[in-house]
Each structure stands twice: as structure tokens, then as C-alpha cells.
Amino acid sequence: MTEARGSTGPNGGTPARNTLGTPCWVSLMVHGLAMTEEFYGALFGWEFEPGPQQLGPYVRALLGGREVAGIGQLPPDRHLPVAWTPYLASDYVDQTADTVRLCGGTVAVGPLTAADAGRLAIASDPSGAVFGLWQAARHLGTDVTGVHGTPAWNELLTFETASVAKFYHSVFGYEQEPVVSADFDYVTLLVEGRPVAGIHGMGHGLPRDRGPHWLTYFEVEDADETLRQMPSLGGHVLKPARDSEHGRVATVVDPEGAIFSVIESPR
């Protein structure tokens, strides 16, 4: 791993979601919305309600009536990689998008207004890893953490940390806490002293078919039981469960190919 270093879950409390750079939402764009709802509903207990439709059909996932994540449907002619995308908080998305461009990143979508929910953009860093920007209005973001089926951590998997960490610092002002190790290239990003995300430099270990990308971890009650459910739900296990200092973790793939990790935090 890529160690899940506990930001919004039980490992680290809940930081102020609207502080610049804080991960505040995760969203997935897929080809088969109904099938994806069925998968995550069974795996995480999510229920769904319609959300803003600016980018096409879109639903919000709920746990106990509280918002957790978003899932949208790609147009039939868009053959894009299916992946979970973290959204990072911004007070002024247009200004942050300009900063992304000035620092060598790309803005692919927006900025645009999502009804009365807020304002968004979808961008990529200089290495090509995709992330979102979110300026909250009525929709603040993920409304519950630390329980089964909620986002627990977001981590950038990339070639090396040094240059890309400079980009994220320039755009969002992150404090950085590097791991001092000759064989482990990892930087934790902090907002107001709280860990909120990580960057893992994998060198040649980065999957060639994916390139640099963000990986979302979801909290689960029982990692091994979650893995046992995967085949019957149409997903599969990419990396088996193992124990880490932050809990029991595994990496899985949903029926459309979206990769994510699950973490069973220490009780």
C-alpha cells in the first residue's frame, strides 16, 4: 500500500471539509449505471437518489440518508477509463482551475455549475492523474465517515513523489510529511496539520496500463468477508487482504473495471 494513513475515518477524525485541498467527495463515471448501483448497493449497503445531471445521468449514494459518494453514467460514445475520482475542496473553483493550468496541469471539464449543489471542474496533474475540484454550495460533500462503505483515504499512485508533490503544494498549499526510507517513496499531504491524502512513488512498479492515478480506500467492517463477496457480485480481487499498521487492506475491481481499496481499521 500504500498505507492508508487515516484522514477522515476513525484513524484521524474529520477535518474541515471546505478547507482548500481537503478531499470532500468521490465520484465514479460508468457505462452501466444500474449494474453499478446493484454492485455497490450489495457491497456497501448504499441506497441511491438522483443528483445534478449536468454531466449526464447521476446519482448520489446514501447510507442512512447521508451522502457518501456519486456515480454517473458516461455517454455511449465516450470510451474513457472507469475510475473513482476524488474531489478536492476549493473556495473558488475558477481560480483554482487557473492555478492548475499555471502549474502545468490540465483542466478537462468545467468549471461549471451543478445546479444549486456547487461548482466543479475535472483536472489532471502534470503526470496525467485525474482529480476533481469542488466548490460547495448546498452540497458540502461526503456526509458520513468511519463506517462500512464510506471513503477512508485517497492516495495518488505515481512514478515519483518529488515533482508531483510540488504541483499539489503549489495548487493547494499542502504541508508535506515524507517517509524517510531508501526503498519507500511516500509523502503524506496535510491540511492544517491533519493528514488528508498520500502520494506513493512506485517507479517501475506503477501499472503500465494505467499510468499515474488516484486510488480511493473505503472503510469496511470485515475485509476478508468483503473479498468473499466479490465474485458473486461480479467483481474480483486484485490484491488479497493483508495486515498493515493502519488496518487490514485489500485492492479490488468492480464489474466495470474501477479499482479501489478496502480497509478494515483497527477496532
Automatic annotation (TrEMBL):
<dbReference type="Pfam" id="PF18029">
    <property type="entry name" value="Glyoxalase_6"/>
</dbReference>
<dbReference type="InterPro" id="IPR029068">
    <property type="entry name" value="Glyas_Bleomycin-R_OHBP_Dase"/>
</dbReference>
<dbReference type="InterPro" id="IPR052164">
    <property type="entry name" value="Anthracycline_SecMetBiosynth"/>
</dbReference>
<dbReference type="InterPro" id="IPR041581">
    <property type="entry name" value="Glyoxalase_6"/>
</dbReference>
<protein>
    <recommendedName>
        <fullName>VOC domain-containing protein</fullName>
    </recommendedName>
</protein>
<feature type="domain" description="VOC">
    <location>
        <begin position="150"/>
        <end position="265"/>
    </location>
</feature>
<dbReference type="InterPro" id="IPR037523">
    <property type="entry name" value="VOC_core"/>
</dbReference>
